[in-house]
Amino acid sequence: MHDNQTSTQASGPLPAIPATQPKQSLGVGALISDTFAVFFSHIVMICLIGLVPMIVGQVLPGLLLGLLADSSDPLGTGQVISSLVMGLLLLCVYTFSTALVIQLTYDEQLGRRVRVRAYLRPAVRSVPAILALSIAISLILFVAQMLLFLLSAASPYLMLVGVPFQIGFVLWVLAAFSVCAPAVLFEQAGLRGLGRSFELTRDYRWPIAGTLALTCVLIALFYVILGAVIMVFTMASGGLLGALLFGLLSTAGTSILVIAVTLIYARLREIKEGISIDQIAAVFD
Questions:
Q1: Is Transmembrane there in the keyword field (predicted)?
Q2: Which residues contact 218 (CB under 8 A, 6 or more apart)?
Q3: Is residue 60 part of a domain?
């Protein structure tokens, strides 16, 4: 018995085992910094990826409008059909460009060259699911807006309480379902992308909301500065070129948000599952 006590004293007290592992930080500053670094590293390619679908999405609906619309009856069946087709086509092309930018972001983070041709097939395959999930999120937000309207109609005091709640709810929903598109692309989650995003963002939704909000503020400053330059340039050169430049500016802002969401997804998988970015992107190799 004496020997056992001696050996225990010699070895010293056993280290305490923590009950729970401390929560890792999302790294908001690093995410925002990396987002703009990716954008400016490939600014030309990213703007072209967004601009070409935007042009196609405006030209083709115009052709469909001319083919299907009945000029004698502006509210006729042909006009309604052409408007629906135009809206659906616009959503598809923007979803397609989003999928391209997501894959470009991963190649940039891995230090690989941009391979737009390799992005096409995964992007096309992911469009239906991403589009369906985007519509589902829009319906959730629409229902929330209707509830706020009913509250404001019942009592102005309820509206005062409801507006802050509504803003918080919108931010929470956007954060909770923010990584649907990367989940569809890299995990082939399909319509399960909503649940997958909800799972990944758990415990990090408010930091994600803050990251997206700060990114939007920087994008707004980006718009103000470059928008003023483009306006001066447009006044000196002509309207057509100015419209093209403003289209590029709009595309740039959307692409920056897509890059931020992609990096958030990668960070969440690293924190929660210990999966590095090269393992995520290996699905396309």
A1: yes
A2: 32, 36
A3: yes
